[in-house]
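Course exercise 7: structure representation. Students receive a sequence record and must write out the corresponding structure in token form. The form below is the worked example handed out in class, using beta-glucosidase (402 residues). Read each field label carefully; the graders check that inputs and outputs are placed in the correct fields and that the protein name is recorded exactly as given.

STUDENT ID: A-19
EXERCISE PROTEIN: beta-glucosidase
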Amino acid sequence: MPTGGFVFPEGFLIGASTSAHQIEGNNVNSDWWAFEHRPGSPVREPSGDAVDGYHRWRQDLDLLRDLGFTAYRFSVEWARIEPQPGHVSRAALEHYRRVIEGARERGIEPVVTLHHFTSPRWFTGFGGWAAPQATERFAAYAAAVAPILDGAVRYAATVNEPNMVALMHTLIRKGGADTDFARLEPDDDLSAGLIGAHHAAREVLRAACPDLRVGWTVANQVYQPEPGAEDACRAHAWPREDRFLEAARGDDWIGVQSYTRTRVAADGPLPVPEEADKTLTGWEYYPAALGQAVRHTAGVVGPDVPILVTENGIATDDDDRRIAYTGAALAGLADAMREGADVRAYLHWSALDNYEWGSYRPTFGLVAVDRTTFARTPKPSARWLGAIARDRRLPAGPGGEE
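STUDENT ANSWER:
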């Protein structure tokens, strides 16, 4: 590793992230599985076997260890743990306990998410996050999971990207084919239900696991006002992001998840310009988003809530482009940390090429997966980032700092 560059502090975690539905396969009791398979579903490609992560977790952990990563964020699947209301599967809990223990045995810090976009079918059937019993039911689920976290996990997230959960469920409830997702505002009852459930689960987990640090992760859109649109930008951002950041002010940490930016004019968000450099998802190529998202999050939650970067990455089939994007994003993160942002981890999205909510085409992974054989092949970007993880040093120059 060359001299110079930014040295991450002692104990800083560098790793990668996944989610249960996107890698495990055959999550048949979840609302997303039902959504994928309902007649007339807009989902182009169902998840199916995904990348068979439910059975191949040991191989995946071995890969992460051998690459040099020190942390792995993954989710436990509520629909497996509680397939029917009140029925907790001891077998499912033991499976996830083994994954947690397997990470620890390999020197990898497990960062566990309780809810990553998917819920049991029965929960959604009862009304989901807007239902009066949502808080009680999610808190009970957290209590069921607590024993496998206690003493083995330092960082747990209750809900992944609650702002996106609220928007997606609002779209399903009210949206039509012509709905502009960028201008959709989440239902207040959905947002309030998610915040209430998060706070309740946080207290359950704190009481059951004294050493556990509890937070949640927010999708950071890096809203940027056009000249004269500052007030409009703040008004647009609050129900879609800042409300959920404010709800984390009493948490033990907050997760930043950043990929690109959103420019906002006086009459609302602007589309990505046709001439802009774009990724496979159609998002603008904008690695500076990460540092800006960290600064914004720190400004909202305050200095007493540490930050974990729980997702950052790029959908591309050009791995050199992945290295360039990630290097520039890490350089922006380093600048934010020099300025005083209390950041404890960088977890890349994603560890594996996996199911991206309707399609396998957008490839975010550090590790390629053959869809037929499930063979895993680390990309050069995985070895590049793994070397940074081992040395805790971001090199100067191309692929690192400016």
